[in-house]
Design a protein that fits this description.
Radius of gyration: 19 Å
Distance between the termini: 39 Å
Shape: globular
Helix content: 25-40%
Strand order of the largest sheet: 2-1-3-4-5-6
Structural class: alpha/beta
Number of strands: 10
CATH class of the largest domain: Alpha Beta
Order of helices and strands: HEHEHEHEEEHHHEEHEEH
Number of helices: 9
CATH topology of the largest domain: Aspartate Aminotransferase, domain 2
CATH superfamily of the largest domain: Type I PLP-dependent aspartate aminotransferase-like (Major domain)
Strand content: 15-25%
Largest sheet: 6 strands, mixed
Amino acid sequence: MDAIIYSFAKRDGKVISLKPSFSLYRMRARVHDAKFVEVPLNDDFSMNNESVLKVAGNSGVIFICSPNNPTGNQFSQKSVLDVVESFPGLVVVDEAYADFADFSLITKVLDYHNLAVLRSFSKTYGLAGGRLGYLVANAELAELLRSRVLRPYSVSSVTLKTALKLLEKYDTILQCIEKLKEERRIFYQKLNSLNDVKAFDSKANFVFVNILNDDGSLGDKLASRRIYIRKVGKIFTEGFAYRITVGLPEMNNVLIEELKMLI
């Protein structure tokens, strides 16, 4: 991410993202003195392509987190590729959660000179502490970033060896992903069965929810019980939004029972 912003938007260049979305885009843009602009999602969390392209203009970088953090929805291929085709600058699709979703745009990078896909070992492989990610792009773009921007030895040998060992267990990891998807479906239905809770369909390893008649205090009450959910804030006109990780069935059931008592 830093290499991309440094190469395409440093010193008053423009970085465009969606709202709400991953907060690190804003933080890293500021580090590189780039102008950061957010474009609100539509009410159904779909992307407003017209607004994105209008704000972006003719240069800079557009970051599209898909599945989106924190809303959990995956933008349609058509919507994303329409932006890629209409924007002369670089479009980066952040697919940190794509293993839990329906599709990936990795197969499209050779079709577009201005498309790059980011992937991570932090989510699917549980290697967040290793800080290992990678970019998939056409050869020209990949070589530009590798040769001119990336620091030598930017990833430790320990992290790389750990990642290789994890890849040896890929079949097992795929089975775990399918189990998580099923538990996500059950968890989503249970959340929506509660009073004053609106859960949204997710293509990530978490569920985005809005709690009516809440100001954020519910998160504090759960934390006092050693149950931690991510506060997102006042996204809607009423209530308070949270991002809740899909845990093991027994963990999810404990949360559901606590919510029944607290809401």
